[in-house]
Amino acid sequence: MIKDTETILRIALQKSGRLHDDSMDLMNRSGIKFNTGAGRLVAQSTGFPVEALFLRDDDIPQTVYDGVADIGIVGENEYAEKGYELEIVKHLNFGKCRLSLAIPKSEHYTGVGWFDGKKVATSYPRILKKFFEEKKIQAEIHEIAGSVEIAPGIGLADAIFDIVSSGSTLVANSLKEVGVVMYSQAVVVANKNLEPEKREILDQMLFRFNSVMASATNKYVLLNAPNERVKDIVKILPGMKSPTVLPLAQEGWSSIHSVISEEQFWEVIDQLKACGAEGILIIPIEKMIL
Ligand SMILES: Nc1ncnc2c1ncn2[C@@H]1O[C@H](COP(=O)(O)OP(=O)(O)OP(=O)(O)O)[C@@H](O)[C@H]1O
Ligand SMILES: O=P(O)(O)OC[C@H]1O[C@H](OP(=O)(O)OP(=O)(O)O)[C@H](O)[C@@H]1O
Ligand SMILES: [Mg+2]
């Protein structure tokens, strides 16, 4: 239970952009709602001791490091680029992308040595510098804040190092991806010296995040089967503990209930049907307490 305390946990969230909606959605589904108004940069939560600071994602790592915010939600790419030592307390499974090297489509790529003597435009100079040092590549790194993908086309650089997700930005700019340097997703980062009361609020928040995230990837399965096939079906459907088996009004038949990950479900559906399962229903789960 949340103690009657004055302590408030401050969380830095992206003000607008790729991570904003998913971050707010996760907080909302965790029962942490903010009384935000248009353009507000600070917002209190109703019913949970949390205050949000809405910032540009570039500023989140330092804000958490300095202790102005206690925790933050930011891409691993931005965290790695800024280089402040923070604790990654949770991977959030959204904002998934990679930081990649890309060159003009017409170029013949000969391996990482291609970059020797070349000029590479990026918003992630620190990560790229480290990568080139490790590979012993002498390249010029040209830092730009945005629209990196147009740099080769306008003669500003020979290549780029930028975020790739679907790859459509690269295709639209006649570039091709030639190497992935890091994979990234949104993470919760925390200041390394959180006081115990704040750590307790953080743990309660992470418990809620875990419940919400588990419910998103799991489904409740209901199906009917002849009694003599129940044993075989139970073997296929492990469930959280073990499936629930209830008698149907119709003699000789049972209803089987279980929880299964969506991925697993597509793998076992044919086996279930082969075992005589009928009337299979897949139902979304609102929250899942692990
Ligand atoms: N196409 C994408 N697919 C998935 N995740 C992405 C994509 N582009 C960016 N991200 C992730 O979202 C983060 C924020 O991206 P966004 O484009 O909103 O950044 P920004 O323009 O620097 O925003 P800000 O105005 O806050 O500085 C990135 O650092 C990365 O972790
Ligand atoms: O591989 P893709 O799916 O095309 O995604 C990659 C693009 O997504 C991001 O930009 P965003 O669309 O967020 O716009 P921005 O340049 O304004 O940040 C990123 O900076 C890339 O340009
Ligand atoms: Mg930014």
Automatic annotation (TrEMBL):
It is an enzyme of class 2 (transferase). Its main location: cytoplasm. It is found in: Cytoplasm. InterPro entries: ATP-PRT_HisG_long (IPR020621), ATP_PRibTrfase_cat (IPR013820), ATP_PRibTrfase_CS (IPR018198), ATP_PRibTrfase_HisG (IPR001348), HisG_C (IPR013115), N-reg_PII-like_a/b (IPR011322), N-reg_PII/ATP_PRibTrfase_C (IPR015867). GO terms for biological process: L-histidine biosynthetic process. Gene3D superfamilies: 3.30.70.120, Periplasmic binding protein-like II. It comes from the Bacteria. GO terms for molecular function: ATP binding; ATP phosphoribosyltransferase activity; magnesium ion binding. Keywords: Amino-acid biosynthesis, ATP-binding, Cytoplasm, Glycosyltransferase, Histidine biosynthesis, Magnesium, Metal-binding, Nucleotide-binding, Transferase. Pathway: Amino-acid biosynthesis; L-histidine biosynthesis; L-histidine from 5-phospho-alpha-D-ribose 1-diphosphate: step 1/9. Residues 218-287 form the Histidine biosynthesis HisG C-terminal domain. The keyword Ribosomal protein does not apply. Its cofactor is Mg(2+). Residues 56-210 form the ATP phosphoribosyltransferase catalytic domain. It holds the Pfam family HisG_C. Feedback inhibited by histidine. It catalyses: 1-(5-phospho-beta-D-ribosyl)-ATP + diphosphate = 5-phospho-alpha-D-ribose 1-diphosphate + ATP. NCBIfam families: hisG, HisG_C-term. Belongs to the ATP phosphoribosyltransferase family. Long subfamily. Catalyzes the condensation of ATP and 5-phosphoribose 1-diphosphate to form N'-(5'-phosphoribosyl)-ATP (PR-ATP). Has a crucial role in the pathway because the rate of histidine biosynthesis seems to be controlled primarily by regulation of HisG enzymatic activity. This is ATP phosphoribosyltransferase.
